[in-house]
């Protein structure tokens, strides 16, 4: 067990600066308007640094820098790009603890997740796209004996990316790695709730980055996000967030006729078929862990398995054992490697979750465990903690339909396969889902029948690179985490060549 | 504990200072604004002109009501107008109508609830106008007797 010292203390692996400027053109640049905003740590509810409050002027400066870098970076070789991505990965690996603790302090998530998942996955993501771009091939088609269609991949130029606060570094990297691999320059706006950890990453890798290839402008959505998303000088915009902003970003993109990728959340069903209970073996325990996985990252995951659908034949025993699992979650200081559930990312988030706990109770859902804020002692008393909560209710309730983005599970039962699929698909969203069954046939059929982009079978919350991730229905457009994301960051150039010397004979 | 933090742990229904009339597809008065929301709206109206809301769903700030200048966010047949309130200035003079929309499919999940728009200290989200003010809008829901 390790308890990391708080950032700024002598033995902490990270020390935040008191102020961060924008990173534009390879340099740290003060905001044009000279304003900054506070960054609050959800661990203790106290501000720990301030970051540049970007405006349209800063976005324009970042786009100037990005376009200045574009002629050379857009024409760099796949080898050069792969070398950069691999060097970034190595540098991150050398600074794993620094990044993990910085991420915990900015976002509130338990350091154990950052050490084991967020940062290692981000490192691997750079390596994956380094490999993907090296092995990417264009295609050619022989149209006839003397006519050949060549298809070349070309970068888009300069792209905009807006990053969410739930995995500030990992979601940043999910967007950065494919964009850079494809040869684009990037202007990136982190979430205003978590602007600092990604700047710690930039500090670590800035000597590796060619000037202007990666630019980071912080600020509020309306002041910095909008001038980026609506800008005529971006060739693509990528966004992760909620549906209204997603629609607004598509509207801006429609004015500029540029492509969009969107990841807009979910209300993921986790379906447990009763053959699980045929034996009380290791797999049964694995399924119970699956029931409790809604607590990962305090439920602040777009794919949080926030609806558990348990078949009636095993309902009572399975749910009782599942609740026991939930009650064993260790909640507390996010810098303690024993802590499984940390702090919610912001006071906004805390309030929203508490309001949903209230809605759930009003709607008549039964609280099986949790159901309230957790008050910790001492320095953490002002932090944003919520007890892992399980509600039992029906799928029409708001807590079953709306993404709470907290450690809140909405539990219901089903009778048979068709009932399960009907409940699972009765949602606006289609990002993630889980299916648990001993029967491979049941698992396969359920997995195919659930309308979502990712269905985990007999597992959940696994995010390896090379497994495509993205939404059906209102959950968005595009597939991240896979080499197919390169397509979202590339143009196709078709060279249609005639090797014939004969006239066409038309004129 | 500060008054603000106290409020954060008490999600009970606040008093409604401004009621909206029901939208054309709805016979329920379901949208109301608290005093704090009205005051913040007056400030934003003064700075940005006429305003509207779109109730969001999904990831991150999913349940946040997003406040935009009228015309910034395009609504259409995929939306339902939930209510129109007449916002007044502090001196009682009319500022104008304030509409609140929700996507039609999300309305199906929300139609048994009343939406009370409150304003609390916080950061705001998305491209909603209040983010830089240090306050943000929050939808507090109660069940309505429909």
UniProtKB/TrEMBL annotation, chain A:
Keywords: Oxidoreductase. The active site is at 263. SUPFAM superfamilies: ALDH-like. It holds the Pfam family Aldedh. It comes from Kocuria subflava. Residues 28-494 form the Aldehyde dehydrogenase domain. This is Aldehyde dehydrogenase family protein. The keyword Oxidoreductase applies. The keyword Oxidoreductase applies. Belongs to the aldehyde dehydrogenase family. One of its GO terms (molecular function) is oxidoreductase activity, acting on the aldehyde or oxo group of donors, NAD or NADP as acceptor. InterPro entries: Ald_DH/histidinol_DH, Ald_DH_C, Ald_DH_CS_GLU, Ald_DH_N, Aldehyde_DH_dom.
Automatic annotation (TrEMBL), chain B:
InterPro entries: DUF779. Residues 1-21 are annotated as: Disordered. Pfam families: DUF779 (PF05610). This is DUF779 domain-containing protein. It comes from Kocuria subflava. The lineage of its organism: Bacteria, Bacillati, Actinomycetota, Actinomycetes, Micrococcales.
């Amino acid at each position: 067990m390790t308890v990391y010292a708080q950032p700024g203390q002598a033995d902490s692996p990270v020390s935040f600066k008191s102020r961060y400027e924008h990173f534009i053109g390879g340099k740290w640049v003060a905001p044009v308007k000279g304003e900054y905003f506070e960054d609050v740590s959800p661990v203790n509810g106290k501000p720990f640094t301030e970051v540049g409050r970007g405006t349209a002027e800063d976005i324009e400066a970042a786009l100037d820098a990005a376009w200045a870098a574009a002629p050379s970076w857009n024409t760099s070789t796949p080898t050069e790009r792969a070398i950069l991505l691999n060097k970034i990965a190595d540098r991150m690996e050398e600074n794993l603890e620094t990044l993990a603790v910085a991420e915990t302090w900015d976002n509130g998530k338990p350091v154990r997740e950052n050490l084991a998942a967020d940062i290692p996955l981000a490192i691997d993501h750079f390596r994956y796209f380094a490999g993907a771009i090296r092995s990417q091939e264009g295609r050619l088609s022989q149209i006839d004996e003397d006519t050949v269609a060549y298809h070349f991949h070309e970068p888009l130029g300069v792209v905009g990316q807006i990053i969410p606060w739930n995995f500030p570094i990992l979601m940043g990297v999910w967007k950065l790695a494919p964009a850079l691999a494809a040869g684009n320059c990037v202007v990136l706006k982190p979430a205003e709730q978590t602007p600092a950890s990604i700047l710690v990453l930039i500090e670590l890798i800035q000597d590796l980055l060619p000037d202007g290839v990666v630019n980071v402008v912080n600020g509020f959505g309306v002041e910095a996000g909008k001038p980026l998303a609506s800008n005529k000088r971006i060739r693509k915009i990528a966004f992760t967030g909620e549906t209204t902003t997603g629609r607004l970003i598509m509207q801006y993109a429609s004015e500029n006729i540029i492509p969009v990728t969107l990841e807009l959340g979910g209300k993921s069903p986790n379906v447990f078929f009763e053959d699980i209970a045929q034996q009380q073996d290791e797999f049964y325990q694995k399924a119970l862990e699956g029931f409790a996985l809604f607590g990962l990252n305090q439920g602040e995951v777009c794919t949080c398995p926030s609806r558990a659908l348990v078949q009636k034949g095993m309902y009572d025993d399975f749910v009782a054992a599942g609740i026991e699992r939930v009650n064993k979650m260790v909640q507390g200081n996010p810098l303690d490697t024993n802590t499984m559930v940390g702090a919610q990312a912001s006071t906004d988030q805390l309030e929203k979750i508490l309001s949903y706990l209230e809605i759930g109770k009003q709607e008549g859902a039964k609280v099986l465990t949790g159901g309230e804020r957790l008050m910790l002692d001492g320095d953490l008393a002002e932090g944003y903690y919520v007890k892992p909560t399980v509600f039992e209710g029906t799928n029409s309730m708001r807590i079953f339909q709306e993404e709470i983005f907290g450690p809140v599970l909405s539990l219901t039962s089903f009778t048979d396969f068709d009932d399960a699929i009907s409940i699972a698909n009765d949602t606006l969203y289609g990002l993630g889902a889980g299916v648990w069954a001993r029967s491979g046939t049941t698992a396969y059929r359920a997995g195919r029948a659930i309308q979502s982009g990712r269905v985990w079978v007999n597992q959940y919350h696994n995010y390896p690179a090379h497994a495509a991730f993205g939404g059906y229905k209102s959950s968005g457009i595009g597939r991240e985490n896979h080499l197919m994301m390169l397509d979202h960051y590339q143009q196709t150039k078709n060279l249609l060549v005639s090797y014939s010397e004969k006239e066409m004979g038309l004129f | 504990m500060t008054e603000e933090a106290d409020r954060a742990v008490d999600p009970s229904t606040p008093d409604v200072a401004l009621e909206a009339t029901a939208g054309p597809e709805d016979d329920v008065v379901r949208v109301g604004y608290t005093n704090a929301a009205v005051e913040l709206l007056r400030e934003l109206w003064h700075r940005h002109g006429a305003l509207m809301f779109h109730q969001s769903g999904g990831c991150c700030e999913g349940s946040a009501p997003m406040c935009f200048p009228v015309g910034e966010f395009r609504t259409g047949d995929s939306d339902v107008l939930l209510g129109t309130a007449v916002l007044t200035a502090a001196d009682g003079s009319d500022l104008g109508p304030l509409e609140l929309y929700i996507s039609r499919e999300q309305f199906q999940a929300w139609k048994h609830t009343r939406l009370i728009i409150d304003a609390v200290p916080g950061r705001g989200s998305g491209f909603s106008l209040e983010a830089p003010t240090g306050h943000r809008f929050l939808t507090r829901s109660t069940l309505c007797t429909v």
